[in-house]
Amino acid sequence: MLVNLNKVLKPARQGGYAVGLFNAVNLELARGILAAAEKNRSPVIMGTAEVLFPYGPLEEVSYYLIPMAKKASVPVVVHLDHGLNRETCIQALQLGFSSIMYDCSTDPYEVNVEKVREMAELAHSYGATIEGELGHVGDNEGSAEGNFRLTDPSAFYTDPKQAKDFVEKTGVDALAIAVGTAHGAYKLPPKLDFERIRTIARTVDVPLVLHGGSGLTDQDFQKAIAAGISKVNIFTDINIAAVEAEFRAFHSMDKGLIDLIPAAVEAIRQEVAKKLTLFGSVGKAPWPGADVDEIVKAVVQRVLEEKNGR
Prior knowledge:
The protein is α/β, with parallel strands linked by helices and 310 residues long. It is built from 11 helices and 11 strands.
């Protein structure tokens, strides 16, 4: 079922788990992601980012992502990640994306606020949700996100007081924060500021998002989610898993493209399944055919009961 961020992240925030976003720039990625989500009864977020359009143009990606989400037996958000231009975000909304991220994090603060506030009003008029970013998540070498290098990452970390002001002024439904992660593959282990996550989570009333998740340790994920992260973005891990599987399958020149597809889909499914388990979202999807609003209530109630030891 196609839903927006509020339908999956509000229960996650209350329940102390996280929902994964996995970019799906081709059909193999989408198939593997959904197979993992449905098998594990987990809500999931699928999408693409503006920097990935050369590999899967936005309109073409919408042709399969949105119908697949609507047919899925679990809640699926179709999300534009890192929309860098106003026109791109508007196009995604017109195509039927249920959520967008308008990334104005490199703009001056007041400009970021005004641009995101305007886009939030538009997204909400479509029934869609919007994610903003405050601070800036940097990029490792080879990152698909670009080349924004941080010589001193802590200088771009999200300020908790400013985060509260940003959320109140813009009306965003989720907030991506900078706490020590970066996009792409890490050469050295990142050092996350978990206390900053906890402080921001206490300060704002919207779910928090961790970008640059691929390459973190299991302990990093668990600590970040326990501190208040409700959405984790993953791409590099599933991207690499698919390629490695295809290399293993292509052991001789008598193979064709269709011989590689099953290997890629299965590798993606397995990698996504690992992340769903790690994020704690397994079993949090409702029964097929349930009303979406009732879904939220049921998931929250289930989590509260688990916490109380019932």
